[in-house]
Amino acid sequence: MPTPHDPSLAVGQPTRECVVLDAQATLPTRYGTFTAYVFRVADGDAEHVALVMGDVANKQSVLTRLHSECLTGDVLGSYRCDCGEQLDLALRYIAAEGCGVLLYLRGHEGRGIGLTNKIRAYALQEQGRDTVEANLDLGLPDDSREYDSAAGILRVLKVTSVRLMSNNPKKFDSLANHGIPVCERVGLAIPMREENERYIRTKQSKFGHYFDENE
Ligand SMILES: [Zn+2]
Questions:
Q1: Which of 82, 120, 130, 145 is catalytic?
Q2: Of 42, 86, 129, 213, most Cβ neighbours within 10 A?
Q3: Is 145 part of the annotated catalytic residue set?
Q4: 166 marked as binding residue
């Protein structure tokens, strides 16, 4: 069953949030049928996508993922990171529950440094630097992602609180600081591989990430 459009979520409707809803339509996928909402950040040109399944308005503990765009992982199947597998698992979890939200956050490529610099950082990692050192070697921040737009989108969707599918403590703190309570963490168990082990271990040691061992 397609998710019915919420008539109160009108395209172009003024909002007090930092995001504007620009378009919405039904999106059938291999996981199930979602409503896709495209939001524009009011003071920039980033277009974020909210994939919504079921009725999430005025609901608590909505199964939610804030997914940072990663072309190499999400589209090309790269094993240098675990993004593509986390995206796949998050959409499966939402489909299994029949209800939830996945925010696909554009402009977050390479923790905010963009595609070209991410590939430059990969080249430095081939010379022995880790994912954080490589960003810093390029004169770039180790993580410049912000989640205020994500919180704004969740508020426009009238989500009251979330169960967050994430290993990243910064996302929990940031959502809470922007007024979206996180009631629970839902782990995404991704297999550790030779190609991504150093990357995952670095995120654990330098950003305090959780890691959910695959059963
Ligand atoms: Zn990635």
A1: 145
A2: 86
A3: yes
A4: yes
Helix axes 148-156, 169-177, angle to 10 degrees: 60
Ligand 1 centre distance from Cα of residue 1 (Å): 31
Q: What is the CATH number of domain 19-108+145-207?
A: 3.40.50.10990
137, 143, 155, 198: the active-site residue: 143
Residues with C-beta atoms within 5 A of ion ligand 1: 70, 73, 81, 83
Are 182 and 172 in contact by the 8 Å Cβ rule? The answer is: yes
Please tell me the distance between residue 87's alpha carbon and the centre of ligand 1 in angstroms: 10
Q: Does residue 32 contact residue 53 with C-beta atoms inside 8 Å? A: yes
Q: How many residues does the chain have?
A: 215
Q: Is 70 labelled a binding residue?
A: yes
Distance CA 85, CA 91 (A): 10
pLDDT at 104 over 80: yes
* 67 belongs to an annotated ligand binding site: yes
Q: What share of the chain is helix, strand, coil (3-state, %, to 5)?
A: 35, 25, 45
Pairing type for strands 62-68 and 100-105 reads parallel
Enumerate the domain spans of the chain: 19-108+145-207
Band of pLDDT at residue 7, cut at 50, 70 and 90: low
Distance of CA 5 to the CA centre of its chain: 22
Distance from residue 162's CA to the centre of ligand 1 (Å):
23
Q: What is the DSSP string of 25-36?
A: EEEEETTEEEEE
